Amino acid sequence: MPETLSIVDQRRATIVPLHQQRQPEDDVSDDKASTCGTVLIFLSVVLVILTLPFSLFVCFKVVQEYERAVIFRLGRLMQGGAKGPGIFFILPCIDSYARVDLRTRTYDVPPQEVLTKDSVTVSVDAVVYYRVSNATVSIANVENAHHSTRLLAQTTLRNTMGTRHLHEILSERVSISGTMQLQLDEATDAWGIKVERVEIKDVRLPVQLQRAMAAEAEAAREARAKVIAAEGEQKASRALREASEVIGDSPAALQLRYLQTLSAISAEKNSTIVFPLPIDLITYFLKTNDAQTQKNAKAAAAAMAQQEKHEQQEEQRKQQEQQKRQQQKQPKSATVLYSDVKQPPKTQETSITVATLSEHQQSTAM
């Protein structure tokens, strides 16, 4: 695969050679290193030839279809890029190689506590799918490309969620995932990593906020249900009014409706027995019942009036008896003296009156 470098790396590759002039001492050291390397390569080839066929087990390596081998000779990256798939040859003692898996890997981002733009704390986790697009760059440019990609995914998730409102996080997961995928892909391009997909798996809200949102949603649903029920009642009332007008114009329509109701009831297997009665007969009984009720009410009112009158008479009689008892308690001598003083000419009549009063008091006391 061709090597891919980021824009920054390309600029550095073009700018650095302009500012750095090679010194003669560097040329001398490169010549010495190349001479020493040539000697070591020659010795390694001689060793392979002398140890045949046992050296073949060490020199030939095999990589799978989904793998690539990055070879370093004397610590330097060999030209031609990564080797594989299949068999490749290395020299003992001077060559080393690293296997790179090109298959797509899945990283489950652990839940991240994020403070949204509207100051709500939420816990968000995601899934990142990535693969190695350039084996040479992933080995030469970064120490551990997979670990770096995973850490970058966590920070990118926190930074992206921190710039969004809560309602955007809950309703725009697809757009947020696409934004994160572009950011991660651009950042990991210099490491030879290709981010294929990012998915937001779950958004966990605080318990109190969940209850508040649930109560709000329930209230909204109840309000809509009440509005729908009110509209249904309004339509039903209009239909009933129109039906009553039609039935009122045609008296036979009511009887037909009654018969239709009986037919609907009799369609089911039940023990209900319905006796149809004319509406006029029921009206007559209702009128008769009203007249009897009025008559009973008048009789009850007259009886109550008579009872009140009788109670008043009884009360007057009790008052008269009480007055008589008070008069009987007065002394007789006072009564006689009073009669003698007030009416001297009528002595005989006064005596008879006093005697009669005394007899009456004695009979009452007995």
Automatic annotation (TrEMBL):
Comp. bias (Low complexity): 297-306
The entry's keywords? Membrane, Transmembrane, Transmembrane helix
Q: Where in the cell is it found?
A: Membrane
Q: Which GO terms describe its cellular component?
A: plasma membrane
- Compositionally skewed regions (Basic and acidic residues) per UniProt: 307-324
Which residue ranges does UniProt annotate as crossing the membrane? 39-63
Task: Give the similarity note.
Answer: Belongs to the band 7/mec-2 family.
Protein's name according to its UniProt entry:
Band 7 protein AGAP004871-like isoform X5
Gene field = LOC119632684
